[in-house]
Amino acid sequence: MSAERAALLRRLAVTTLQANWEHDHTVPSRTLYPHQWSWDSAFIAVGLAHVRPDRAWRELRTLFSAQWADGRVPHIVFNPALPVGTYFPGPVFWDSSRAAGAPAAATSGIVQPPVHAAAAWLVHRRAPSEASVQALRWLYPRLVAQQRYLTRRRDVGGGGLACIVHPWESGVDNSPAWDGPLAGVPAEAAVMRAYRRHDIAHAAAAHRPTDLDYARYVAIVAAYRAVGYRDDRLAEQPFLVECPLVNAALGVAEHALARIAGVVGADPGPHRDRAARITEALVARLFDPATGTFRPRDLRTDRLVPARTVLGLIPLILPDLPARQVGAVLAEACSPRFGLAARMDRPLPTHDRTAPDFEPLRYWRGPSWVNIAWLLWRGLRTHHRPDLAAGLRESMCDLVARGGCHEYFHPDTGAGLGSPAFSWTAALVLDALAEG
Fold first, then answer.
1. Using an 8 Å Cβ cutoff, are 403 and 416 in contact?
2. What is the rounded distance in angstroms from the CA atom of residue 115 to the CA atom of residue 378?
3. How far apart are alpha carbons 247 and 286 in whole angstroms?
4. Which candidate, 162, 176, 172, 133, places its Cα nearest to that of 375?
5. Which residues 6+ apart lie within 8 Å of 319 measured at CB?
6. Does residue 352 contact residue 309 with C-beta atoms inside 8 Å?
7. Keyword annotations for this protein (predicted)?
8. Cys-Cys link to 256, which of 105, 118, 234, 248 (CB 3.0-4.6 A)?
9. Catalytic annotation present for 173
């Protein structure tokens, strides 16, 4: 990549992040997502570390200030300055204030992938200072509480992995991986007539989850809300799945916490032990040797989900993933299903592009997302594949150079889709540029 092109990309990314800064956090988008989102803030902090480390720490501190007493970090922290109807489902729908242990701030009642410890470590590594050490001291017990919540309260399957109770908790909302588990959730598309979806006012309906998807999402939230978001009653919930992305992030978080512990004067040993156990459980419960990929496990049926999605590649981020699984994941990633290569003709899709239900326009059912590519890029570097990592990095940067900092991209043409000024796209391209 030329120095001129890199400088242009950097300016675009910095401008996007500056425009989306909202006094103590960054909104993912000024149009589609006007509040603070959990894993968005972690990715955003990674990028901000290169230009405004003070804001990177503020981002994480603001998010964790809304942590629940049980350790969960909510997937949305609502901005009280915005009108109630700005986003659906908003604070009135979630009604979190009535739940035991909820914070004073209005939040959702579910979580997102725990990528925050790894982000905090990267921010410190990018811009080490006394201020960053103090920030880690404040964050460390809160990150530990987040891990404890997921590994203890969410281990419904009893095999050492956290389960998700809603597709939104995976971060990949309408992935084909959830079609089977969602099929048993009773809901009708007509349910959505009672609500106003704001997403399809800013993006084409053909690019977003369907009304039936949303009806099921609403039904799942309603069931969880009805029990006060209590995890001692998870067996009653209609959607219970062990997700490869969430659990790979859980394992990586323990590796990051071991490093953070060394900085703040805590014992790194327990984190290393927990990281090893999570990786072992992930391989035992979610790796499918017949196809050589990781798959979510539907705890309602105790079966692996058949869809071959990009979720199956994400465990490559685990530094202690066994060689057999590393080789299998690389073979899957480099197959025609995903097309990873040292020189990529097309961007990485989120679903098997040879599958009959591959949809190149619809959200997580095919389109390319920079955060997923970035995670896999880091995994490739961890497992000493600089050739493939360089190809993926070039593909990420090329998407933004041609289409801008879009929310996601067409997996064939690279055309920008969703929000045109999306924060984590900007942030993660900044990080990729810095590692060039």
1. yes
2. 13
3. 10
4. 172
5. 252, 255, 382
6. yes
7. Glycosidase, Hydrolase
8. 118
9. yes
Which one from 242, 359, 407, 431 is the annotated catalytic residue?
Answer: 407
Residue whose C-alpha is closest to residue 248's, from 159, 352, 149, 170: 170
Residue 186: exposure state from Cβ atoms within 10 A (0-12, 13-18, ≥19): exposed
Alpha helices in 68-115 (DSSP H): 91-94
Contact 409, 373 (CB under 8 A): no
If one counts every other C-beta atom within 10 angstroms of the C-beta of residue 358, the result is 17
Q: Which of 173, 213, 231, 242 is catalytic?
A: 173
**Among candidates 251, 309, 315, which has minimal Cα distance to 286?**
315
Torsions phi, psi of 417, nearest 5? -130, 160
What distance in Å separates the CA atoms of residue 377 and residue 387, rounded to the nearest whole number? Answer: 10
DSSP state of 149: I
Structural tokens at position 64: 């964790």
In order of start, what are the domains of the chain with their CATH numbers? 3-434 (1.50.10.10)
d(CA 295, CA 307): 8
Cβ proximity of 397 and 1 under 8 Å: yes
pLDDT in tens, the chain (436 residues): 788 889 999 999 999 999 999 999 999 999 889 999 999 999 999 999 999 999 999 999 999 999 999 999 999 999 999 988 788 889 999 999 999 999 999 999 999 999 999 999 999 999 999 999 999 999 999 999 999 999 999 999 999 999 999 999 999 999 999 999 999 898 765 565 555 655 656 567 666 778 888 889 999 999 999 999 999 999 999 999 999 999 999 999 999 999 999 999 999 999 999 999 999 999 999 999 999 999 999 999 999 999 999 999 999 999 999 999 999 999 999 999 999 999 999 999 999 999 999 999 999 999 999 999 999 999 999 999 999 999 999 999 999 999 999 999 999 999 999 999 999 999 999 999 998 6
CB 79 within 8 A of CB 30: no
**Is the distance from CB of 432 to CB of 46 less than 8 angstroms?**
no
Residues sharing a CB contact under 8 Å with residue 323, sequence separation 6 or more, in sequence order? none
Count other C-beta atoms under 10 Å from residue 4's C-beta.
Answer: 8
